[in-house]
Specification:
By secondary structure, this protein is an alpha/beta fold. It folds into 2 domains: about 350 residues, Zn peptidases (Aminopeptidase), CATH 3.40.630.10; about 200 residues, Glucose Oxidase, domain 1, CATH 3.50.30.30. It contains 16 helices and 19 strands. It has a 15-stranded mixed sheet that branches. A two-stranded antiparallel sheet has the order 7-8. Strands 17-18 form a two-stranded parallel ribbon. Helix 5 links the parallel strand 9 and strand 10. The longest helix has 20 residues.
Amino acid sequence: MKLVTQLFFSLTLIVGISACSDSTEPKSVQDSANETASQKPSNSIDSQHLSDIVKVLASEEFEGRAPGGPGEAKTVAYLIKQFQSLGLEPGGTDGGWTQSVPLVHTQLDSSGSLNIKVANTDQTWRQGSDVAISTARAVDKASIKDAPLVFVGYGVNAPERNWDDFADIDLTGKVAVFLVNDPDFSAAPNEAVAGRFGNKRMTYYGRWTYKYEEAARRGALAALVIHEDKAAGYGWNVASSSAGEQFTLAETNGPLPPLLQGWLHYDAATALFNAVGLDLDEQRKLARSDDFSAFELPEARLSADFTVSMDNINSQNVLARLPGTTQQDETLMVSAHWDAYGQGEPDELGRTVRPGANDDALGTAGVIELARVLKAGPPMARSVVFAVWTAEESGLLGSAAYASNPIYPLYYTVANFTLDILQTAGPARDVILVGEGQSDLEDDLARAAALQSRVVTPENLPENGLFFRADHFSLARQGVPVLLIMGIAGGADLIDGGRAAGDQWIADYTGNCYHQTCDAWSDDWDLRGAVEDIELFHSIIRDLGDSNRWPQWKESSEFRKIRMETENMRMRSQ
């Protein structure tokens, strides 16, 4: 992927946005924006409309839509043009269409080295094959000399679950080596830990982001998470797809992140443990016991030496607003993310652009379509904000930036509805619920589905932790009730082929095209199911848009307490 300087990016973004109002915008983008947004006065979601938008955003011209890359200015300009054509108001900062998201973009030099020394033997770990690491620090050099490695098990500190993997070990200046997912993920029914972390349903303790955060809190110099396909929820091809590259928010609070962080291939981890006289599979089992505590791997030291290329990038969230009539301050939010993975190594067909057609150009198209049908319909009492985030693929950074500095107060934000990857295999008898048991928006979803003669099915892959892997989570962490539709959360019960066909669609997409060059637009897509899913949000938003009801988190949700605090703020502001 090309690195872009801040000056170059700023100039191209200015040119791209100004192109919305003059003839210098590339003809294909201009024509597509006009043709897509302003036609078809239908008051229902249109599959051809969705396809047309994705075809543009996932085209070669947009170069994979990487934040700060050459495709960002075109993407932002296109989205603004769409919303303008619908007659929406700018919803961004200071009356504009965007919110600035300052990022730091780093890239490790491919000629760097990473070595493990155990006693008198050496192991060299290859970037992309044995490890997939990057740096989240704004540095020009990432060097580590003979740092001890500490196996921290699952790296969980959860007093409320009577669990602490760290005890009193000091991680300062050391390398933390984690297992992925929760301590009970692989537990047998008779093990003491079974069920303590939700069984197969991943908690936030199981996410790699939590593990990096915990490593940072404890002063670790580096953090490595041992990759396992099932426990991670995706294969090594996905984990290693952006090896060496990292985006982080330029303005953050909290401890300094580890100098190096990323994935460690299971085979490389096995060889490391063997070299120190330990069996990794046995250690995985021991890490599930109450008496496990972190320990240094005997005589193991890690050294690394990488030159870091660094750019400061001013990326953009794009926001549009449909103002309400009598309750304008109360906001419903619909969102997706515009970014994808830019360009990478050539595939077997020579393709380098990773176009992100389904992930998440299709979700973005869904947001635009919802904006169109809501604008065409009767005015609502409450306002709706349509947000298309940057840098989701880099750790939900665009939505996190908004959640930490919201344009519309979060205590007046009624709910967030997120579209991220919609299934393209046709209509289904059900819709898949991500994160069962979180909020009463689930009841709204069930009622909307019933109107379509469909039912709600809880995700059948809860161990993948999808509730923590999309932009709605940034809002949930601030107490806003959320609802996510994500096609890879479980095999839908397709009209044509049933659950088996739904499972096969997920296997084909995640196994072959997720974050890869083949996540491309296709005229073979059957978008009838995606249309039905987007219409569910349409129905719920219509209902809440003329309501005084505030959706609530369920008693068992960890976000309920936060929402109660923000409700007090809302009451005081009235």
